[in-house]
Amino acid sequence: LFSKVEELPRDPILGLTEAFVADKTPHRVNLGVGVYQDENGKVPLLACVKLAEEAMLAKAAPHTYVPIDGYAHYNAAVAKMVFAESCDLANVVTVQALGGTGALKLGAEMVKVATPNAKVWISDPSWENHRALFAAAGFAVETYPYYGADGELDFSGLIATLEKIPAGDVVLLHACCHNPTGLDLSQDQWRQIAKVVRARGLTPFLDTAYMGFAEGLETDAFSVRLFASDGGPLFVSFSFSKSLSLYGERVGALSVLTANPQERSRVLSQIKRIARITYSSPAGHGAAAAAAVLADPALRRQWDEELGAMRARIKKMRQLLADKLAERVPGRDFTYIVRQNGMFSYSRLTKPQAVLLREKYAVYALDSGRICVAALNEKNIDYVAESIAKVMVE
Ligand code: PMP
Predict the structure, then answer these.
(1) Which of 22, 71, 244, 261 could pair covalently with 240 via S-S, beta carbons 3.0-4.6 A apart?
(2) Which of 122, 172, 179, 372 to mutate to test the pocket of ligand 1 (most atoms within 8 A of CB)?
(3) Relative orientation angle of helices 155-162 and 187-199, to the nearest 10 degrees
(4) Is the domain of 357 the same as that of 385?
């Protein structure tokens, strides 16, 4: 039966982690991962989550099924947080999903129902899973320019391509903290994009996996709310994996802004069918904890503080890395590291430099040069800066 089954290549990021685990160099550093780590290199358990979980445990509720579309109070709380007053929530479908990936999958299948012949346009480069996920849902996936040859955002290339995309196609945009480049659009650039997208009748799909990591929850919601404020249509995938440090609990949501409550009801029925045949109903624990954090003013304040501390630590590491590299590689500008947002930085390391960094210095970055800034800390940053500087001048 399986004699003709082809072996697929390893996932490049997971493959890098496997190589890192096998590496016995004592000072090795893994900058390939996509998780936030604290100053001790540990994935944090947020206090707000711990308190919510303790209260849940004390209640000892049975583990019955969650509704197909998730907990209603969770969905309502997510919709309110993401959209605020930007649109009429009576027209928004929000469905609990298995993380941001699960939200993207529900969204991709819903797009397929609504507009099966559309193409899907993603940024060049984008999170690797975007292409694979939309291709698996049966779409032709194209790219629009994003990362310029000079290491900065290619905004004119982006707009010029959007202006040529046929009406009805889907444009996937990173709401904030672009993965992998860390290059974000300014509010003015978002306005220009929204204008072109709407004028050409394209369907925006905003992937929101890092809300709160650029400037804060409110500011980071700008792009989503901008697109929502003209009434849609709009798809938004959302993840709590990073912002509540709930990676393994798979807590996310898909929202779709429709034209009216009748449309909303039809779209919801379709998304429920997709969920039903894919996993029947989502997981309960993480979403219940997230909903409890959003519902309780004290826990919500605590979350704001903890999210703020994660954001501030990342920004501090960006500044330190840029300063330390500038000291070691005179005449070269590293301010781009500070201007980028979120967990990742396109470090401008070339592929041979990334390979050398790994093989000679045991510092693991992706071949693209992407590094996870959230994996840096006061203990490893000197070694990382020293090693990057060496491979850049070698
Ligand atoms: N979108 C982007 C841009 C991401 O970087 C990630 C996670 N790395 C996701 C979606 C998926 O999020 P989750 O882990 O919650 O499935």
Answers:
(1) 244
(2) 179
(3) 20
(4) yes
Distance 104 CA to ligand 1 centre (A): 9
ipTM of the complex: 0.99
Residue 55 lies in a domain: no
Asked about 127 being catalytic, the answer comes back as yes
Final residue in a domain of this structure, among 236, 264, 295: 295
Dist. CA 238 → ligand 1 center (Å): 9
Considering its fold, how many domains does the chain have in total? 2
Q: What CATH number does residue 383 fall under?
A: 3.90.1150.10
Which domain CATH number covers 86? Answer: 3.40.640.10
Q: Are residues 26 and 166 in the same domain?
A: no
Tokens standing for residue 280: 């029947």
Do 127 and 234 share a domain, yes or no?
yes
Instruction: Please list the pLDDT of the chain residue by residue as tens digits (394 residues).
Output: 999 999 998 887 888 988 999 999 999 999 998 999 999 999 999 999 999 999 999 999 999 999 999 999 999 999 999 999 999 999 999 999 999 999 999 999 999 999 999 999 999 999 999 999 999 999 999 999 999 999 999 999 999 999 999 999 999 999 999 999 999 999 999 999 999 999 999 999 999 999 999 999 999 999 999 999 999 999 999 999 999 999 999 999 999 999 999 999 999 999 999 999 999 999 999 999 999 999 999 999 999 999 999 999 999 999 999 999 999 999 999 999 999 999 999 999 999 999 999 999 999 999 999 999 999 999 999 999 999 999 998 8
Strand-by-strand arrangement of the 120-124 sheet = 92-98, 251-257, 234-239, 203-208, 170-174, 120-124, 141-145
> Closest residue (by CA) to atom 4 of ligand 1?
209
Q: Check: CB of residue 275 under 8 Å from CB of residue 95.
A: yes
Ligand 1 binding pocket mutation candidate from 207, 346, 366, 370 (most atoms within 8 A of CB): 207
For the CA of 251, the nearest atom of ligand 1: 15
CB 291 within 8 A of CB 73: yes
The token duo for 306 is 């903890």
Which residue among the candidates 105, 112, 242, 324 is catalytic per the annotation? Answer: 242
Residue 57 lies in a domain: no
In the numeric block, the tokens 């399986």 are attached to 2
